[in-house]
Amino acid sequence: MKLHIAWIGKTKESSIRALTGEYLKRLGRYTPTEAHELADEAALLKLVERAAKRTRPTLVMLDQRGRQFTSEEFAELLREQQQRGAQNLIFAIGPADGFTQEARHGADLVIAFGKITLSHELARVVLLEQLYRGFTILHGHPYHAGH
Question: How far apart are CA 111 and CA 121, in angstroms?
Fold first, then answer.
């Protein structure tokens, strides 16, 4: 399974770029991972089209109205995607004002990290950390036990 992390908008903060790079490197130990900095929703839809191989990619969007997971439930979501043979799993973070309703309806799953609103750059770091945590849970790595 190839993991794609897509976000709309440019990253201005060097600290966000550094954390993004660190977690992408860590995730690469568990699964092939690509980052995509996109201009708009249309570019996201093109990415989804390009990722379609033998199977349609799974598109997961972040939105405060989405389903909430514990870290263990999130890890199970990753396991389920692997077990079903998903070739491409795309996690998308929208622009500062969020995804349009039309875009959210095109997602396979919409998730939230609680009812709070995060900046889209901070949401990316939280997503990457939770993906890393999910893979460490699946592999029995002690990272999660130390939380």
Answer: 16
